[in-house]
Amino acid sequence: MNERALSLERKIKAKKAYISIIGLGYVGLPLLKLFLAKGFRVLGFDIDPKKVRMLNQGRSYIKHVTTKGFKHYIREKKFRATSDFKALNEVDVIIICVPTPLDSHKNPNLTFVLDTTEVISKNLRKGQLVVLESTTYPGTTEEKMLPVLERKGFKVGKDFFLAYSPERENPGDKEYTTAKIPKVVGGVTASCRRVAQALYDHVVVKTIPVSSPKVAEATKLLENIFRSVNIALVNEMKIIFELMEIDIWEVIEAASTKPFGFLPFFPGPGYGGHCIPVDPFYLTWKAKEVDYATKFIELAGEINTRMPYHVVSKTIEALNERGKSIKGAKILILGIAYKKDVDDQRESPSLKIISLLQKKGAKISYNDPYVPRSFGHRDYPGLELESVALNEKKLKKFDAVIIATDHSVYDYGWIVKNSSLIIDTRNAIKKKRKNVKKA
Fold first, then answer.
1. Other CB atoms within 10 Å distance of the CB of residue 352
2. Which of 132, 156, 233, 333 is a good FRET partner for 294, with 20 to 30 A between their CA atoms?
3. Taking the CB of residue 36, how many other CB atoms lie within 10 A of it?
4. C-alpha distances out from residue 107 to 190, 395, 410, Å
5. Are β-strands 385-386 and 93-96 bridged in parallel, bridged antiparallel, or unpaired?
6. pLDDT at residue 275 in the model
7. Measured between alpha carbons, how far is 336 from 341 in angstroms, rounded to an integer?
8. How far is CA 234 from the centre of its chain?
9. What are phi and psi of 20, to 5 degrees?
10. CA 90, CA 76: separation in Å to the nearest integer?
11. What is the 3-state secondary structure (H, E, C) of 115-160?
12. What stretch of H or E contains 401?
């Protein structure tokens, strides 16, 4: 290790290193909180002035991420948020937590990462550590970021340090919080890896150093593709078992009693969140460079993205059995967040279900205690709705209620009692009911 690396390592160990986090969303904000809690001074960057303003007032904009204690950190000058990226020159560590979406053709869109790298390059000084946490394909850190950061003539591993450490956030998980999730760390050089490992050693339960950023990038993709493939498997089995009049949920419960060789995955209306619907396509795209067709991975994605169509088909079928056409039917969607007990709508299957039903002429309303307004996000720009209040009179007016997200706050017994027809996509209602159809 050269003197710059040793100096930065000493600052980190003494908790005198000034930490910055770019992108204060579902990944960046919990990480920011963690560094503050561990005694570091933190500077938060975001291009959204509303987020910057709220954080500087000590307020959170994410339901499950509280900002308790932020006002104390602000008073003690331990924390501030800004959109002025010139301040990057002040910090010792730069952690990137920006979005890595897909474009309209399901190809990787690295615009946020590359734009951020350009800004860092302009403000980079010697002795800084840059860490990318955003999910991406193997090679991004070294092939895309490194050349930009070395433009000033700085040498990686000598003048500055570059590493990749994939985020592993699970929004709403009260057991595995950011501090309790091990971090994989891959540095461009041995010095890069050592400095990055020293950083995360101070804030998480365990660090797992790997030989390169590529290995760390591939680790993140494997984790989420594993989930994608298994979710697709159980979703396909659900459809098969429906035709055989077998309850998939009972099958999963029985299979889960095996103490080895089985991990339970659960079917649903489609997958959501930023990772699982997106990450497989990053590897699919990169695999083309080595002339390999990722048939298995793509098939899993195809099955999972078809699940909202299955829900709509089951809804139409259930309405037909009651002599009701989908056109003009009043349908309530329960839950528009992509998973229970969070306010995150990214890639939510509920949005696709709503869009499909509206195209068929249904009149759609939704309720979600965590999402008072839905703006549809990038794939559904015209979809703007407000959550409706739930009461006995309103419930009885709907021709069908679709349980799309099984929030814990819902009183399912009361919902069953006051609804004429329920399409349950989450097994929220365990007992068989005449007015409940599983989908």
1. 23
2. 132
3. 21
4. 32, 42, 38
5. unpaired
6. 79
7. 11
8. 21
9. -125, 145
10. 18
11. HHHHHHHHHCCCCCEEEECCCCCCCHHHHHHHHHHCCCCCCECCCE
12. strand 400-403
Six-digit token string for 328 = 């003009």
Token pair in block for residue 238: 């659900």
The 10s digit of each residue's pLDDT in 377-417 is 767 777 889 999 999 999 999 999 999 999 999 999 999 99
In the predicted structure, residue 64 carries a pLDDT above the cut 70: yes
Helix (H) or strand (E) segment spanning residue 438: strand 436-438
Instruction: State the pairing for strand pair 183-187/161-164.
Output: antiparallel
Question: Which segments of the chain belong to CATH 3.40.50.720?
Answer: 3-211, 236-438
- The distance of Cα 6 from the centroid of its chain, to the nearest Å, equals 35
The residues annotated as belonging to the active site are 275
How crowded is residue 87: how many other Cβ atoms within 10 Å of its Cβ?
Answer: 14
For 94-144, the pLDDT digits (tens) are 999 999 998 888 899 999 999 999 999 999 999 999 999 999 999 999 999
> In this structure, what DSSP letter does residue 102 have?
B
The answer to whether 332 and 402 are in contact (CB under 8 A) is: yes
Token pair listed for 167: 């985020």
The label of the residue with tokens 């994939």 reads 166
Overall CATH class of domain 236-438 = alpha beta
Token digits for 369?
């205690």
Question: CATH fold of 3-211, please?
Answer: Rossmann fold (3.40.50)
Q: Tokens 């169509």 correspond to what residue?
A: 309
Type of residue numbered 379: D
Q: What are phi and psi of 172, to 5 degrees?
A: 90, -5
Collapsing DSSP states into helix, strand and coil, what is residue 295? Answer: helix
Q: Identify the helix (H) or strand (E) that includes residue 423.
A: strand 422-424
Please list, in sequence order, all residues whose beta carbon lies within 8 angstroms of the beta carbon of residue 315, skipping any fewer than 6 positions away: 326, 331, 357, 400, 402, 423, 439
309-355 pLDDT tens trace: 999 999 999 999 999 999 999 999 999 999 999 998 888 999 999 99
Alpha-carbon span 202 to 115, nearest angstrom: 29
186-204 exposure pattern, b = at least 16 Cβ within 10 A, e = fewer: bbbbebbbbbbbbbbebbb
